[in-house]
Amino acid sequence: MSLSTLPTELILLISSYLYPTDLNSLLRTCSSFHRTLTNLLYHLACKPKYEKAALYSSAATGNSTLVSLIFKQNPDLTIFDEDADHPIPSSTPAEKKTDLALNLGVSLILRYPNKHKDLYGDGVSYAVATNRPALLKQLLSYHADPSCVTPSGQTPLHLAVMNRNPTAAKLLLQYSANPDEKEFEGPNLLSSAFGPTALHRAVSNNDLEMVKILLEGGASTEVVNMFGKTPWFLAVQIGVEVAEALRDAGADINAKDSRDYAFWDYPMSNRVMRMLDDPYLAKDGERARRSRVRMEKLWMDGSIGA
């Protein structure tokens, strides 16, 4: 049975459980839904809980009526003007904001009241950070940039890793997000050339599921962070499961960091040592034994606790 043949009352009941992004998509499928659901969407979109998501969605889909209504109901919502590198004045008429938002579409960046530096100004980052997969998929399907960078220097993929959001990570990779993009490590860096990748973050979180998602999505095991360390250096100090995942993906376990140290020059967990002491991996076992000797020496010197 087609959804369009359902009674209006039932359509309204179903729609009351939808987010504005889903409702916006539904009412665009046919004229009868548009007539039935438009007022419900407008009412829902103006609630403080939903207005930002609804604005990103309606700007992307070109719903000028809804964009205008949201700005009229929320005059403090301000568009960030990238050309001028500052928000447009909050006193700007809603009509002008509407035109600008529609012109920007999926590139819309918002600045919120009382926030000097909003972390999630673009729609994709906002959808990831607030766990709104429907909005994220909609924006990406309208060709939003999956690798845009927030003012804090993070890509949406970094945000997905930090929020342990595998659904968002898979969507971003599906829409060609760069898994090896680095984040800014500090406000004084002019580029992200030295920051960690999403894989560094996932390994640091000991998030095996996310590590596997990133590796399957094409993440490199050899990209280094600001200290010249590949994710392998972090993995051997974190846990055996992520270390095994990286090793199985072909990580170079003999790589050296910016201090010309290899992984065995640093302490590692006993479980990782046992993994590398596998008799079938004699070369790796030698590396683990070197690390154990180093740890014992550090303990005897009092450099680490017992």
From TrEMBL:
It comes from Tuber borchii. Keywords: ANK repeat, Repeat. ANK repeats lie at residues 152-184, 194-226. This is Ankyrin repeat-containing domain protein. PANTHER family: ANKYRIN REPEAT AND PROTEIN KINASE DOMAIN-CONTAINING PROTEIN, ANKYRIN REPEAT-CONTAINING PROTEIN-RELATED. Residues 1-53 form the F-box domain. InterPro entries: Ankyrin_rpt, Ankyrin_rpt-contain_sf, F-box-like_dom_sf, F-box_dom. It comes from the Eukaryota. The keyword Endoplasmic reticulum does not apply. Pfam families: Ank_2 (PF12796), F-box-like (PF12937).
